[in-house]
Specification:
By secondary structure, the chain is of the alpha/beta class. It is 44% helix and 22% strand. The strands form 3 sheets. It has a 6-stranded antiparallel beta sheet.
Amino acid sequence: MILENLSIIGYRNIAQANVDFCPKINTFVGLNGVGKTSFLDAIYYLSFCKSSLGVADSVLTGHGSEGFMLQGVYREPSADNTLPTIVSAGYQLNKRKHFSFNKKEYSRYSDHIGVIPLVISSPYDLELISGVSAERRRFMDMVISQYDKEYLTQLIYYNRALEQRNALLKSQSGSQDLFCAVECNMDSSANIIFEKRRSFCEKLSPLFNEYYQAIGTDREKVNIKYVSSLETEPLQSLLERNRQKDLILGYSTAGVHRDDIDMTLDGFPIRKEASQGQIKSYLTALRFAQFKLLRSLCNTIPILLLDDLFDKLDENRVNNILSLVAGDDFGQTFITDATPDRLGSMLEQHSNGTHKVFNVKNGAVQ
């Protein structure tokens, strides 16, 4: 999918902008804090109905504004003569936001997930390594949900049943039969989630290694491994066995909501063994593997966002990354950088002229 035009009003520190993009590489350059990341976040919002920063819509509203508006005009690369796809989002303070596809408003935001597939690599990815397990589960959920609607549906069902069980545990008023009914619902959805997460990690791992080698000169082997309590015991059995302990604690101690991913470099935990450059290469390769998997499973080429590309990467690795994204395997890419001359000279080497550079200053773009 290609984003041809982006219109923004009152989003974060962008008062107003209307930008036409090229179908290959687009870069936003400017000093830190001027709004480069806000443009990428607006593009992300139009794919996921929310910000990549994990904040509420009210926080995204610009200073002095009562809300924000985003609109993206998309087109398939090989469909120049067809009508474009228009995705719009609007939010007013203290009111429900509106999200529409070709002027038809969604009743459920989850219906939009996967329509405009997208991959983002940003400094916040460090949380995948140093953060809690919820960050790694969120990574799996956001990727799988883009190509598998059943997964997203079962995830919603599971979380609803989990809330019910936790409420019973806290109130300590549920009967044996009521606990069994709720746990049966959790088990049914958990089995599907477990199998789809395991399959996802198995497919992603070889692609991950492929891109890690392509980005740098290191010969280490990288790997991700899915970790779940369901590998050894059915969830319903675990829940029943842990029920007395859970009643004391007031929450469910077993289930796919506690799954994790082991991230390793040459068999050792990446968070303990790697340099900053290796970690950035690791995370970028993981996102590129995600891109390739999505491309193979979706009906369209995902959009790629690379925020703060040069952070902790040497020039050789950045050149390797630009060579990859300029190739035929990747589609439209958006990049941010704080140094215009540095990125511009590299793009001239790799993009064959199919790139645009946007200078951002105080929320305005040229």
